[in-house]
TrEMBL record:
Residues 5-56 form the Rubredoxin-like domain. Belongs to the rubredoxin family. Its cofactor is Fe(3+). One of its GO terms (molecular function) is iron ion binding. PANTHER family: RUBREDOXIN, RUBREDOXIN-1-RELATED. Pfam families: Rubredoxin. Involved in the hydrocarbon hydroxylating system, which transfers electrons from NADH to rubredoxin reductase and then through rubredoxin to alkane 1 monooxygenase. It comes from Achromobacter spanius. SUPFAM superfamilies: Rubredoxin-like. Pathway: Hydrocarbon metabolism; alkane degradation. This is Rubredoxin. GO terms for biological process: alkane catabolic process.
Length: 71
């Protein structure tokens, strides 16, 4: 059984990366696991490095609603 897709929040600005959605506008297709994003990737909103993101467990609502809840 596949592990559920997760979300990761930027500790610098609250940006939410949702594995289910990816970031197609930044070349990361939907379904891309956090571990598969390059180690030198940075937050598209504030430039915080990948190492400063934390996995968060949220009830599954839209990523947009979740992002607003974290800010």
């Amino acid at each position: 059984m596949d592990e559920p897709l997760k979300r990761h929040v930027c500790l610098g600005c609250g940006f939410l990366y949702d594995e289910a959605l990816g970031l197609p506008e930044h070349g990361i297709p939907p379904g891309t696991r956090w571990a598969d994003i390059p180690h030198d990737w940075v937050c598209p909103d504030c430039g915080t490095p990948k190492s400063r993101f934390e996995m968060v467990e949220l009830p599954y609502a839209s990523a947009e609603a979740a992002a607003h809840a974290l800010v």
